[in-house]
Structures are given as C-alpha cells and as structure tokens.
Specification:
336 residues, alpha/beta, Rossmann fold, six-stranded parallel beta sheet, six-stranded mixed beta sheet, 12 strands
Length: 336
C-alpha cells in the first residue's frame, strides 16, 4: 500500500476550532498528497514519535525476546513506546489498539495472535489517520490498505527448511508426531502446511498425529505425554512449531526413558539459545531460526511512514538453520 495515504496522526490532533488554522492544515495536507512519488522527504521525523505496540503475550522465550527488542530499541531512539500484553487473547489486543487510537499515538504495531478478525479495528485506526504495522504474524484482510506493511519471518520457508532437513538426514523416512502452535495463528498454519507440502516429496515421511501445544512449554509436555500413552515408542520424529514446545517434549521423552536426539529425532523452529544448546548437546537434531529481534526494522519503517516516505509492503528477516554441524559454534552468539 502507499503510506502517503496516511496523514500522520499528530497533524490531525492539533487542529483547533479556528477556521484559519483548520484551512491551513488542510491545504498543507493537500500539497503533501500531491507530491510526486520521487519527491524528496526528510530522512527522519522532526521529533520523537509515539508507538503503540499490541503484543501477543509472553508465552515463550521467543516472545519475551521480541518484547525486549521493542523496548530496548525504543529507548535507544528516544521513541515513546506504549506497550500492551495481549495475554494470548485477540480481544485484549483489539482493546489495546482502540486505546492507542484514543491516545492518538503516531503508529500502531500489532503482533496478531490470530490471522483473522482485525478489519473493524484496522478501519478505526485508518479513520483516525494512524498507520498500522503488522509484525511477526501476518493478518488476513480483504483490504490491504488497512495496514502499512508487514515485518517478520517467512513461516512457510521455515516449515520447508525443517522438512527438507529431515528428508536429507532421516533418509526420507519416519513416523512424525507434530506439536503445533496456537490454532488459527499464522505460524501454526504456515509451518504446518509448508511442512506437509514439502514432505510430500519424501513418501517415507508421514505425520501420524498432530496436536496443539499453543506455543507453550508446559502444554507441549502434556501433549507429548499423551502421545507416549497413545503410541508408546512407535514413532521416530517430533516436529514442534517452536522451541519452547520442543523443550517441553524433550522433558516428557526423558521422563519416559527415551533419549531425545538419539532414540527419537526432535526438530523445531525459533533458534533460542536454549534450543541451539540442546542441538549442540545432541538432545535436539535441528532448529530453524525465527529471529525475534525485529525492532530496528519496525522502527525504521515507523519513522519513514511518519516522515511521509514509502516503505516496502513486506520485509522478511533472514533466518538460518542449526544442526550438529554449526550449533556448538553458534551458542555463544545467540542474543535470546
């Protein structure tokens, strides 16, 4: 979408009842909108901006690292950050966004807990001339102009990377138990479907069961315990949609007398330091990174939008894969 369609919120909020000031502001906006796409703009806003951040929750180490990234980078840049923890509930996030609109922040950032159901509140933000950045998990909307851009990881690529690694390192064979993320969330949907589509190239790889662990370690441990009761040792691979769930599954496997990484392959997505260490220790076999340190990219985009500059519609982080060949060397470099 064209970010010039947003008039920065503070221009609107300072309009008083005086006709001259009102007319001058409207004239100024008209001139701004009429500028050609190639017209130069200032590289940064004239003063620090205020950002409202509706975070999904604090359900994992990844999520807490993502929050810390947003908070630390805001302090570094002198940005005022209004933060809200959605506690894993969309209704909490929607209420937070409405509160940000009422406060008149300059930019709203949403890390949506699920893909759908955002259009009404996004329309409210657009009506208030407050641009929205979609972070981490992509929202599904019929009108792409409702948010300015998406910044995060490519969940489909992550699922493909795990599946292709298994195709090469499990000799294309194995009965797989999948522990999926929050139902309806973009990473759960994309990491599952991309994985399924990719293992179709390896007829010997088969998902025999899939249950949600809601991206939480304790939930995944319970799911793994239920799998063990149902299947005994009659499986070869555990595929978890995030590291916290993989680590919860590890605990259940160890308590059942099964050696993860040896008796059963364990693969995951996130790239947290604890999981990369588990790969280095031989307890996990593969971890694909999903970088949570997105704040620099998000604030770069927010400052450009407020300054009237264009931003890319989609920006993906570059993620990497860790296995026995590189995990030990990478542990000390992990920032989360």
């Amino acid at each position: 979408m064209n970010p010039m369609s947003y008039l920065p919120g503070k221009f609107v909020r300072i309009i008083h009842s005086g006709a001259l000031l009102f007319g001058a502001l409207l004239a100024g906006y008209s001139n701004l909108s009429a500028q050609p796409a190639s017209a130069p703009a200032s590289s940064t806003p004239t003063k620090a901006i205020t950002v409202g951040f509706a975070q999904t929750g604090a359900e994992s180490d990844w999520r807490m690292a993502n929050t810390k990234s947003m908070q630390d980078e805001a302090k570094k840049r002198g940005i005022t950050l209004q933060f809200s923890d959605g506690q894993g509930k969309q209704e909490n996030q929607i209420a937070a966004v409405r509160n940000f609109i009422a406060q008149g922040v300059d930019v709203i950032v949403i890390a949506p807990v699920v893909e759908t159901g955002w259009q009404p509140v996004l329309r409210e933000a657009k009506a208030a001339n407050i641009p929205v950045i979609d972070s981490d998990r992509q929202m599904t909307v019929t009108d792409p102009s409702l948010y300015a851009c998406f910044i995060g990881s490519d969940f489909k690529t992550e699922g493909k990377m795990v599946a292709n690694w298994l195709g090469a390192h499990a000799n294309g064979k194995g009965r797989i138990l999948e522990i999926s993320g929050t139902p309806g969330s973009a990473p759960a949907i994309d990491r599952h479907q991309a994985f399924v589509d990719t293992i179709a190239k390896y007829p010997g790889l088969t998902i025999i069961d899939s249950q949600s662990g809601d991206f939480r370690r304790v939930n995944a441990k319970e799911v793994m315990e239920a799998f063990l009761k149902k299947y005994g040792h009659n499986f070869d691979i555990v595929y978890a949609h995030n590291d916290d769930m993989a680590l919860g599954a590890l605990q259940a496997l160890q308590e059942a007398g099964i050696q993860p990484g040896k008796d059963v392959m364990v693969v995951s997505i996130d790239g947290t330091k604890e999981a990369v260490q588990a790969v280095a220790d031989g307890k996990m076999n593969c971890v694909v990174e999903c970088n949570p340190l997105t704040a620099p990219l998000i604030y770069d985009a927010a400052e450009k939008i407020v300054a009237g500059q264009p931003v890319a519609a989609v920006t993906y982080n570059k993620d990497q894969l860790f296995d026995s060949t590189n995990a030990a060397a990478a542990v000390s470099t992990r920032q989360y």
